[in-house]
């Protein structure tokens, strides 16, 4: 999710924007959910996150495959998968603990059941086994497992591209069609046949679309006026077909909405979601080109900072969203309260992003200031080799070795 070697402010900005939307969407019974992008079209912030992650992965891992060979490229991908795996387990335990604590403190609310985690606590031994084998994936915790499995497919796609980039499309398309017919479903619960909410063999289509753009396998979309008008018209038509207050009030719009529902399926990543996201991405790209300086201004800096630290920010948002929901349960959901609580949550994402960047800088590894060096003056001098016990002459017959001693003067 993070760590491109050549930072693109557009990539970081839209990935950061997705993190903000995901937080708002994850807060239970959040009134702001009515205004997130998913309410006005088939695609939502998840598509933005997956596409940007694919683009970033091409920048991050593509260089490793090219410079250090296929073996080290695979090793780096597996290392990232390992990090995501443990991040997923840690997030589950943290959110589950917060649910237990909130239930005990509130007394009148069952946050464990609200997240549908009570089967895990009813059979903890069995639950742990299925949790660590990723055969137990509750709905709230389904993004990281999906991303992990998609990322594990990178070596396969890179290997196909090495034979010829044109092979990538049939491989990704074949996996997409296979899962659409139920051939690649992964179990999400041990007590039912429910599959993962995000099928990774479906969502890989969008991930590797971003990867292909990032790797240069696909050219940048052309600047055509007719294409701009077509994508804009498509996005506008999707608004009345997706906005519930409108399609539920107009009979023929409601019928059209239900007809298109299967094409917008989120588990199998319906093709309508794919086309809608690509249209939005094209419009966003053209919009950014009109004002490229907007992404380098102060207003965009917090969003870009969040996008640069997507994994730690996402993990925090999963925990934070549940706590914000508990606060709203206690304080009520009046407009001002909702504004303050959401504002604090969004601000915390920026704080976590900056803290993560500070920790990655590892300031403690930097050299001590000159003032400290002066307090303990060490001097480098040349001394005769014979003066050092056990000293050896170098191969060139040198008569001196470099010695270091502390000046006492």
UniProtKB/TrEMBL annotation:
Signal peptide location in the record? none
Q: Give the stretches traversing the membrane.
A: 12-28, 48-66, 86-107, 127-151, 163-181, 201-219, 226-243, 271-288, 300-324, 336-356
Any coiled-coil regions, as ranges = none
UniProt name for this protein: OpgC domain-containing protein
Q: List the keywords (alphabetical).
A: Membrane, Transmembrane, Transmembrane helix
Q: Which PANTHER family match?
A: BLL4819 PROTEIN
InterPro entries the record matches: UCP028704_OpgC
What Pfam families has UniProt attached to this entry? Answer: OpgC_C (PF10129)
Question: Organism, per UniProt?
Answer: Benzoatithermus flavus
């Amino acid at each position: 999710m993070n760590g491109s070697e050549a930072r693109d402010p557009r990539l970081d900005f839209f990935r950061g924007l997705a993190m903000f939307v995901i937080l708002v969407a994850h807060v239970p019974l959040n009134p702001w959910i009515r205004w997130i992008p998913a309410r006005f079209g088939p695609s939502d912030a998840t598509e933005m996150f997956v596409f940007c992650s694919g683009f970033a992965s091409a920048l991050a891992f593509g260089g490793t495959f090219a410079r250090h060979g296929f073996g080290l490229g695979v090793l780096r991908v597996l290392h990232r998968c390992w990090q995501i795996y443990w991040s997923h387990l840690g997030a589950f335990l943290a959110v589950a603990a917060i649910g237990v604590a909130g239930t005990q403190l509130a007394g009148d609310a069952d946050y464990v059941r609200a997240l549908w985690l009570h089967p895990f606590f009813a059979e903890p031994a069995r639950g742990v086994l299925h949790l660590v084998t990723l055969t137990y994936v509750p709905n709230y915790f389904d993004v990281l497992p999906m991303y992990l499995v998609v990322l594990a497919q990178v070596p396969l796609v890179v290997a196909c591209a090495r034979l010829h980039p044109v092979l990538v499309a049939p491989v990704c398309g074949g996996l997409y069609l296979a899962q659409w017919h139920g051939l690649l479903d992964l179990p999400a619960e041990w007590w039912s046949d429910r599959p993962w909410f995000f099928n990774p063999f479906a969502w890989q289509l969008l991930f590797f679309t971003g990867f292909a753009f990032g790797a240069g396998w696909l050219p940048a979309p052309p600047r055509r006026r007719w294409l701009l008008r077509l994508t804009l018209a498509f996005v506008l038509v999707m608004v009345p077909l997706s906005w519930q207050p409108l399609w539920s009030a107009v009979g023929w719009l409601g019928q059209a909405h239900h007809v298109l529902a299967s094409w917008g399926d989120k588990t199998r990543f319906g093709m309508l979601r794919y086309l809608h996201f690509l249209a939005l991405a094209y419009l966003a790209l053209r919009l950014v080109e009109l004002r490229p300086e907007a992404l380098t201004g102060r207003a965009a800096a917090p969003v870009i900072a969040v996008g640069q630290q997507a994994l730690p920010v996402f993990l925090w948002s999963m925990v934070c969203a549940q706590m914000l929901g508990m606060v709203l349960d206690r304080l009520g959901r009046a407009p001002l309260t909702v504004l303050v609580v959401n504002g604090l949550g969004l601000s915390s994402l920026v704080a976590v992003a900056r803290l993560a960047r500070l920790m990655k800088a590892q300031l403690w590894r930097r050299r001590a200031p000159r003032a400290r060096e002066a307090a303990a003056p060490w001097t480098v001098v040349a001394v005769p080799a014979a003066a050092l016990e056990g000293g050896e002459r170098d191969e060139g017959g040198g008569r001196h070795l470099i010695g270091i001693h502390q000046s006492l003067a």
